Amino acid sequence: MEIHKHKKKIFTGQYTAITEKSFVIFFIGIRVNNLWAVHKWLPFVVRLFALKVHLKNQYQASLLNTNTWFSWREIMLVQYWDSLENLEAFSRSEIEPHIRIWRKYNQSIGKSAHLGVWHETYLIKKEDYECVYNNMPRVGLSAAKKHSKMGY
Using one digit for the tens of pLDDT, what is the confidence trace for 62-89? Predict the structure, then answer.
C-alpha cells in the first residue's frame, strides 16, 4: 500500500534496499560554532547547498542519492556514491567547484573556529550492509538502490 503525503510516497510495510555492487557512503557536516558570526559562516553554507545542486545536475550517474539532515547548529549531508574512485575524482578535480569552496573556507574561516566542517567516507561491500525501512518514503540507500518489500 502506498500513501501520498507531503509529495513523498510512503511505502507501508517493511522494505529493504538491494544492491549487487559495492558502494560508498559519504557523510559531510558543518557545525555553526559562533551563531553571531553569520557574515563568516553563511557564505559557506550557501556554497555548500550550491555544490549539492551542482552534484545533482552533473553527477547523476555517480552520485546515487543525497539526504540532508538538520539539527540545532548542524547540517549533515549523507551521500551514496557508486564508487570511491568517482567520489575522489570529483573532490580532487581542479575544474569542479569543490576545490575552490574548500580553499575559500580555509582562507576565510578555516582557522577562526566560527564554523566546523567534518566528513567521513565508508566503502561498503555488497554483502556488508543491512537496512530496513518501515512505513517510510524512499530515503538513504533505498532511494539510491533497488527498493524491495521484505517477505516477513
Answer: 999 999 999 999 999 999 999 999 999 9
Is there a contact between 116 and 30 (Cβ–Cβ < 8 Å)? yes
Distance separating alpha carbons of residues 87 and 68, to the nearest angstrom: 18
- pLDDT (0 to 100) of residue 106: 87
CB 115 within 8 A of CB 44: yes
Domain boundaries, the chain: 1-19+130-152, 22-128
The pTM of this model reads 0.87
Cell numbers that stand for 140 in this block? 538513504
Query: Domain 22-128 belongs to what topology?
Result: Alpha-Beta Plaits (3.30.70)
Look at residue 134 and tell me whether its pLDDT is greater than 90.
yes
Tell me how far apart the alpha carbons of residues 137 and 84 are, in angstroms, rounded to a whole number.
27
CA distances from 140 to 40, 57, 111, 132 (A): 31, 19, 33, 11
CA distance 32 to 98: 20
